[in-house]
Amino acid sequence: MDDKHFFKIVFGENLRQKRLEMDQKVTIKKAASLTNLNEDYLGRIERGEKLPSVHTIFQLFIGLGISIDEIFKDVYMQIEILKKNGTNFHIHK
User: Fold this and answer.
1) CA 17, CA 46: separation in Å to the nearest integer?
2) Is residue 90 part of a domain?
3) Which pLDDT score, from 0 to 100, does residue 42 have?
4) Is residue 78 part of a domain?
5) Which of 66, 68, 21, 17 has the alpha carbon at shortest distance from 46?
6) Angle, in degrees to the nearest 10, between helices 54-64 and 28-35
7) Is residue 69 in a domain?
């Protein structure tokens, strides 16, 4: 698997985790509204099925109040671990 594939999966999982850790456990419907994104598209990002554009990532961070530094640091560290350990992985927490 390449870095793009790892990124899609890890980014989506981290985004979902951050959304659920928010003060009021924001639903995907509410998150879609806050970010001006389609609910189905947001779900596909969280499941690692879609790679969001830079603009979409920006909308997610601004709309949900997520720290850019924090999520990208987490994503980078998880990708490095996955690459080191091989491609058979499950990220769900």
Assistant:
1) 9
2) no
3) 98
4) yes
5) 17
6) 110
7) yes
Question: Exposed e or buried b for every residue in 19-37, given b needs 16+ CB within 10 A?
Answer: beeeeeebebeebbebbeb
Is 73 a domain residue? yes
Copy the structure tokens of residue 78.
């998880």
How many C-beta neighbours within 10 Å does residue 62 have?
13
**Structural domain harbouring 44:** 3-85
Supply the pLDDT for residue 88: 54
- Return the CATH number at 26: 1.10.260.40
Closest listed residue to residue 15, CA positions, set 67, 86, 85, 88: 67
pLDDT tens, per residue, the chain with 93 residues: 677 888 899 999 999 999 998 878 899 999 999 999 999 999 999 999 999 999 999 999 999 998 888 888 988 888 888 778 875 555 444
Q: How many domains does the chain have?
A: 1
Q: Which two tokens stand for residue 71?
A: 């999520």
Structure-token pair, residue 76: 């980078």
